[in-house]
Amino acid sequence: MSFVHLHSHTHYSLLDGAAKIEDMVLRAAELKMPGLAITDHGNLFGSVEFYKTCKKHNVKPIIGMEAYMAPAERGLRQKIEGEKDSYHLVILAKNATGFRNLIKLSSTAFLEGMYYKPRIDFEVLEKYSEGLIVTSACMSGQIAHKLRTDRKSEAIAHAEKYIELFGDDFYFEIQDHGIPDEQAVYPKVYDLAREMGVKVVATNDTHYLNHGDHRAHDVLICLQTGKDRDDPNRMKYGTEHLYMKSPDEMFSIFKDKSHVLENSMEIFEKIDLELDFDQRLLPKFPIPESEGVKSENEYLRKLTEEGARRHYPDMGKEVVERMNFELDVIE
C-alpha cells in the first residue's frame, strides 16, 4: 500500500510546525514512502533545504505551501462580514515552472496581501497558475468552511473557479484526525465531489513527527498566540493526531475509501521538479544600439566612465586606477 503525505508543516511554519526537515525526511524514508511534500503556512522558507534533504535520502521532494487566500481582493485590509480574514489552500509545484510561480505567489502575498497573514487572491493565483496542483486544504479551506456553515452554493462557486483554472490538477482534500467538525463536514465534501466530478485526496495535517509530540506542539501554539496553557479560551487543535502517520495507519483510517489515499500517488506521479543549484542565473540587460558598444562589459565601462567624470571632473590617476581595478574584478 503506497501513500505520500501531501500536507506537511515543518518548523518553517513559524510557531506552529514542530518538526525539523531532516527528521521529517528521515521518517518518510523509514516508512518507505517514495515522496514527501512541504506545505508550510504562507511561505517557501524551507523549500531549498527540504529539496536537498529529500534528494540526499532518496525521497522525492514535493515543493508546496499552504497559502492564505483572501476572501476578496488581497489588498483589502479590513474585516468582511461573514468571512474569515483568510482561508487555506494547498498549492504544489508540478514542475520548474510551477516552482517559479509558487515563488511569485509567496512574494506577492508578503508584498501586497499582508493582513495578519500573507495572503493571495484568485486574481494573482490565476496569473501564476501554470505548473501547479491545488487541493482544497483542511477545515480552514474555503470549500470546507462554506459547507460547514451551510453555504453550499458558495462552496460550489469556489470549486467551479478552481476546476476551470486547474482542471484535473484540482482535488478536494479530506482529513480525519478524530475531530467532530471533520466528521460533520467531510461527508458533504464527498457528496460535492460526486456532484462535480472532482477527485478526492486524503491527507494528514502533519505538524509534528511522532504521536506524543502533541504536548510540545501545544506549548508552541501558546507561544504563538501569547496565551497561558491553562487558559480555557485559548486556541487548541483538539487532537493528538497531527503526526506523520504510516501508510498502514492512513489505510486503517480510510479503509472504506482507499481510493482517496491512492490519489496521493496520482499527484506524486504528476510531480516532475528538478532544481539545478549549479546554474548561474544572472539578469540580462539589453544594450541600446545607439551606445555603439558590442558587449555588456564595454557598456558597463562606458557608463562607469561617464559617471566618474560627473563626480570627478579632473579624473585623476587615483580615480582612474580605482575604476579600472573594480571593472577588472567584475569582468
From TrEMBL:
InterPro entries, per database record: DnaE2/DnaE/PolC, PHP_dom, Pol/His_phosphatase_N, Pol/histidinol_Pase-like
Any single GO BP term: DNA replication
GO molecular function: 3'-5' exonuclease activity
UniProt superkingdom: Bacteria
CDD domains per record: PHP_PolIIIA_DnaE3
Domain (Polymerase/histidinol phosphatase N-terminal): residue spans on this chain: 4-71
Protein's UniProt name: DNA polymerase III subunit alpha
Source species: Caldithrix abyssi
